[in-house]
Amino acid sequence: MCGIVGYAGTAPAQGNASTTGAPVGQRALEVLVEGLRRLEYRGYDSAGVAVSGEQGIGMRKKSGKLAMLLEELEANPLPAATAGIGHTRWATHGGPTDANAHPHVVAGGRLAVVHNGIIENYSQLKAQLAGRGHSFASQTDSEVAATLLGEVYEALEDAGQNSSDGGSRLATAMRQVAQQLEGAFTLVATHASEPGVVVAARRNSPLVVGLGDGENFLGSDVSGFIDYTRRAVELDQDQVVTLTADAVLITDFFGVPAEGREYQVDWDAAAAEKGGYPSFMEKEINDQPDAVAQTLLGRTDGEGVLTLDELRIDPAVLKTINRIIVLACGTSAYAGQVARYAIEHWCRIPTEVELSHEFRYRDPIVDEHTLIVSISQSGETMDTLMAVRYAREQGAKTVSICNTNGSTIPRESDAVLYTHAGPEIAVASTKAFLAQITATYLLGLYLAQLRGNLFQGQIKDILAELAKTPAKIASVLANAEQVKELATSMADTRTVLFLGRHVGYPVAMEGALKLKELAYIHAEGFAAGELKHGPIALIEEGQPVIVVVPSPRGRDSLHAKVVSNIQEVRARGAMTIVIAEEGDESVREHAEHVFYIPETSTLLAPLLTTVPLQLFALALATAKGFDVDQPRNLAKSVTVE
Ligand code: M6R
Q1: How many angstroms does the Cα of residue 398 sit away from the middle of ligand 1?
Q2: Are 499 and 547 contacting, i.e. CB atoms less than 8 angstroms apart?
């Protein structure tokens, strides 16, 4: 939640004409605005920037989307500067107003601060600061931290004290303040007495450094500076970083120097553009054949044997695992639920899937024979991070399935298996979901290979079928128009029910989640077998029910059972829409609409059946005129509990 950017450079006039609306020739402002544009998916309740220059701090902020800030900047330009900070907000403390927007400028207009996270002891600190004569213009915890920073800075100034790192008094003050704060925070600040310096502190909240040539950057993630550099530096927990045009100095909260891990971002600015599609979401749905193909790439040797070198957990240890717990939230948790069917089937290891936020509060039984598989697109979801930490403390081995290099969850896990879906910008997760299923399947097959649960030939066959999936996804996408037409005609629908069984059940829940978050329609996914235990009472004349039908070639006559379910709801007036396998004519007579997917095995079907549901939600939300990339009340990355 919340996007943060920081910049320190030299000459203000390096920039070419800006595409962002930032004034031409103002490099700092241009970089900040461009960074905010890239990070807006993290929160869009307000946006603001502050620059520090010879004339002091210049600040502009506005509630609403970034476009409002750009209008404000045009009406009231900021002076040229060499350094600055920016923020795009997802509101926690205090509503989305101008006053609550960041940056918070305090200390008589000399200090500007932006914040992401939640400061848990803010009310005590606020009371203490108020007792010392400070007043507050906003309802935020962030302004409390900013005010404390201003107070500490002033005390250091009065004492004539400096710090060793670049002589920045701001860095010293930041360290002292960080020690007093509880909760999760990224704080970034700039002070009028130190123009050209930006200082940040991080605890349990994301922040990455970008290294430029005569300029350096900060971002909540690398997209905050991807237009300018692909050289990034990971920061650890509880660190303070001081940024100038020529230097990046990292210490812990007590001033002990530290080193960050530098890495090269493996995608570029073009990958984070819409590529001719009207929305990021539509682009990302269409990226899915590639996302799956890239995630499969390079994970076998010439003989078709899986070689997941990145796993870094001793194979001997993996052989002793007697239980797997998948931890994730939202769409990632549905990917975990799909994976569970495959992992248990292939590896014969009992596998549970648990929402990260529920996990650590129920005193779960975890030991060194438990393998925790966390799934997170962003790698920053606070609930999942905390659950992983907890499990690690109990002695479990942890593997992170993640799409974001350099993010916190993989860094704090024993091993990581990256999904290579490329940047996912739309708030609603699509390509990450298919890539997560693919990666967890690779993990399941690897464990089966290691533990000898499957013959090498069987693994080879499954991998060969997986390799054909990207082309099959492309063929589902080729029929997008048919789904779009139906969804558009249903723009006035008030509720949609989704049914699925076996792997189709989490797919049904994912279809319902997409519709809720994009089209703001009541939608629920049910296990088809559960229907007669209650949900069938919801069916009335015309109720749309979308049913994910298993392959007729699958086992345990699940197909016949789900077809019976379709008949049951239809007999009670439901309007049935069916996702079925090509050639399955048996569903036609029971459905108003049928969307076919290519033939595939039962376990791989979610990689195909999900796609029409994503297209359905996209088209219905578009027909209602909603912003599919930035749905209301949501943020891409949930970095607070
Ligand atoms: O970054 P993560 O995968 O950890 O995020 C988890 C959920 O917040 C995320 O999947 C969310 O449910 C999406 N908005 C769903 O489209």
Answers
A1: 19
A2: yes
Nearest one of 531, 532, 542 to 572, comparing CA atoms: 542
Q: Confirm or reject: Cβ of 638 under 6 Å from ligand 1.
A: yes
CB of 150 closer than 6 angstroms to any ligand 1 atom: no
Residue ranges of the domains in the chain?
A: 3-265, 275-471, 479-629
Q: Is 65 a catalytic residue?
A: no
pLDDT at residue 12, rounded to an integer: 52
What is the amino acid identity at position 424? E
6 lines ligand 1 (CB under 6 A): no
Annotated catalytic residue within 61, 126, 472, 636 = 636
Interval 470-477 mean pLDDT: 97
Strand order from edge to edge, sheet including 198-203: 104-106, 111-119, 183-191, 198-203, 239-243, 248-252, 257-258
Residues recorded for the chain: 641
Kindly report the CATH number that applies to the domain delimited by 479-629: 3.40.50.10490
Q: Please report the pLDDT score of residue 18 as a whole number.
A: 45
CA-CA distances (angstroms) from residue 280 to 88, 193, 493, 603?
A: 18, 41, 25, 28
Q: Which residues are CB-contacts of 368 (< 8 A; sequence separation ≥ 6)?
A: 320, 395, 396, 397
The token duo for 604 is 């791989």
Rg (CA), the chain: 26
CATH number of 3-265: 3.60.20.10
State the distance from the centre of ligand 1 to the C-alpha of 223, rounded, in angstroms.
Answer: 18
Note whether 251 and 165 are within 8 A (CB): yes
Could you confirm whether 484 is annotated as catalytic? Answer: no
Q: Which of 299-303, 368-372, 540-544 has the lowest mean pLDDT?
A: 299-303
Q: From atom 8 of ligand 1, which residue's Cα is the shortest distance away?
A: 330
List CB contacts of 638: < 8 A, sequence separation 6 or more: 1, 329, 381, 382, 383
Q: How far is the CA of 511 from the centre of ligand 1 (A)?
A: 14
Q: Which residues pair with 247 in a beta bridge?
A: none
Is it the case that residue 19 has pLDDT exceeding 50? no
How much of the chain, in percent, has pLDDT values that exceed 70? 97
| 46 ligand 1 Cβ < 6 A | no
Where are the alpha helices (H) located in 373-455, listed in sequence order?
382-393, 408-411, 431-451
Report pLDDT for 167. Answer: 76
In the reported structure, the alpha carbon of residue 382 is separated from the centroid of ligand 1 by a whole-number distance in angstroms of 11
Q: Which CATH class is domain 275-471?
A: alpha beta
Domain 275-471 shares a fold with domain 479-629: yes
- Rounded to the nearest 10 degrees, what angle do helices 288-296 and 431-451 cross at? 20
For 564, the enclosing helix (H) or strand (E) is: helix 558-571
Q: For 367-407, where are the alpha helices, taking DSSP H only?
A: 382-393
Amino acid (one-letter) located at 472: K
